[in-house]
Design a protein that fits this description.
Immunoglobulin-like; binds copper (II) ion; Cu_oxidase_Cu_BS; 3 domains; oxidoreductase; 6 helices; Cu-oxidase_fam; 470 residues; mainly beta; globular; binds CU-O-CU linkage; oxidoreductase activity; metal-binding
Length: 470
């Protein structure tokens, strides 16, 4: 199986090649008319071997986002290969069935490579006969882009402020095309929604006023379906949505919207005098509302399923088991001298002395705080605040506490019903002023992984650090 993943910017088109060398029970299919990579469907416990050949003019490496695999297979930037070189990924897929994805991860140029189309979905299948089958089980990869007059992708206006904020486009693409109308039959669907955008956050809602029925998160199915008026989805995150079109009239139409919200960004001295509105190169700031895509119902009736009241039980990671429950490791995400940092530091590929070290087969609690502790540069730096989607490589974790006491009421009031903190996660949204505690267990593999902000421009600026399992 030979897949070209094209990367197009201006008139140059580059590619990398993924050869699926071994994957007995897997399918790898391109999305029709898409500039994105393919959708892998792999059975749980499958061993897969993929050869990556880099034909890009710059170094690259593939990261399998959300998968629990050894460090050498995980796409740490230290394993990036140059143009013409190749790297063979081989691992057993032992994650829970669910919706994962893959994308490049070279140091400082991840944002550009993902933007140009080098990403795809990686679905782990289980025995899920009670859920919508194949034809009714669809990816929805949401991304924003800017096109120039010749219909070519434009990445960043290279100014400091737009980098600081992260890329925001003014066109919304679904599954790597601008064809935003999807035909569905009178059936029950399972949508695997991935926010594959560089820095845009979506507040997903249906136009017909029905609740968003969420059945899964980053790490697979929830223990039971959750109904929400809307769902916040930050870059890197996935949710699985259940939607029944069977009662709708033929030719009826439903939109998936992103509703307006206030993401809490403040970039100014003196209380946000420079809001993100002013800085957005595209004019579509984070938090503006728009339509993502529409679904037109055909007269054909297809598969109907009834929503299960429960899936499988999810065992929780007991906080009491954590070796550091009394004093969690703390990670402060903030801005220091026009630079996004974690605990005052930026990414260093091999600075072994001060990266986090954890022990194999232990449970820990980590606390992530959006904002400075006030000791560093004091007030000045703390006035620049943005949301950060926090992502850890190598494992799935559980959210045990989300403290919103420091979040501005103006912002919180617009997003509060949109968080799903149940189930397994590998990425979560950390709003300005917010504190989130997670429980995580280091199992099976030793070695070096990264954790970082999944606003890809922030990541490329160095808002990323290593942790090592020893
Ligand atoms: Cu999808 Cu290191 O990230
Ligand atoms: Cu990842
Ligand atoms: Cu960030």
């Amino acid at each position: 199986n030979n897949i070209q993943v094209m990367s197009g910017n201006k008139t140059e088109v580059y590619s990398y090649v993924l050869n699926v060398l071994k994957a007995d029970n897997a399918t790898v299919e391109n999305l029709p008319g898409s500039w994105l990579g393919p959708v892998f469907r792999v059975k749980q416990r499958q061993r897969i071997r993929v050869r990556f050949k880099n034909q890009l003019p710059r170094e690259s490496v593939i990261h399998w986002h959300g998968l629990h695999i050894p460090p050498e297979m995980d796409g740490h930037p230290m394993y990036a290969v140059e143009n013409g070189a190749q790297y063979v990924y081989e691992f057993e897929v032992n994650n829970r069935p669910g919706t994962y994805w893959f994308h490049p991860h070279p140091d400082k140029i991840t944002g550009q490579q993902v933007y140009e189309g080098l990403a795809g979905m990686f679905i782990v299948e289980g025995n899920e006969d009670h859920l919508p089958t194949e034809k009714y089980d669809l990816p929805l990869i949401i991304q924003d882009r800017i096109f120039d007059g010749n219909n070519q992708l434009v990445y960043m206006q290279n100014n400091q402020m737009s980098r600081m904020q992260g890329f925001l486009g003014d066109r919304i693409a679904v599954n790597g095309t601008l064809e935003n109308n999807i035909h569905v039959s009178k059936s029950t669907y399972r949508f695997r929604v991935l926010n594959g955008s560089n820095s845009r956050i979506y507040k997903l809602a249906w136009s017909d006023g029905s609740d968003v029925i969420v059945i899964g998160t980053d790490g697979g199915l929830l223990s039971r379906p959750v109904r929400k008026p809307y769902v916040m989805l930050a870059p890197g995150e996935r949710i699985e949505i259940w939607k029944d079109f069977s009662e709708m009239n033929a030719e009826g139409q439903v939109y998936l919207h992103s509703l307006p919200f206030n993401d809490g960004t403040s970039m100014g001295m003196g209380g946000g005098m420079m809001g993100d509105q002013m800085m957005s190169g595209s004019g579509l700031s984070n938090g503006t509302g728009f339509d993502i895509c529409s679904f037109t119902v055909t007269s054909e009736s297809g598969e109907r399923k009834s929503l299960p009241s429960a899936f499988q039980n999810i065992s929780s990671i007991p906080e009491s088991e954590a070796v550091n429950a009394a004093s969690p490791r703390q990670f402060r995400f903030f801005n220091q001298r026009m630079q996004w940092v974690i605990n005052g530091e930026t990414f260093e590929m091999r600075e072994v002395a001060d990266w986090e070290k954890v022990s194999l087969n232990t449970t820990e609690v980590w606390e992530f705080i959006n904002g400075d502790d006030g000791r560093g540069m004091g007030m000045m730096q703390d006035m620049m605040r943005m949301p950060h989607p926090v992502h850890l490589h190598g494992l799935q974790f559980q959210i045990i506490d989300r403290d919103i006491s420091g979040v501005s009421a103006d912002s919180w009031g617009t997003v509060e019903d949109g968080f799903i903190d149940d189930g397994w996660q590998d990425t979560f949204l950390l709003l300005p002023g917010m504190k989130v505690k997670i429980a995580l267990k280091f199992e099976d593999f030793t070695g070096v992984y990264v954790y970082h902000c999944h606003n890809l421009e922030h990541e490329d600026m160095g808002m990323m650090r290593n942790y090592e399992v020893v």
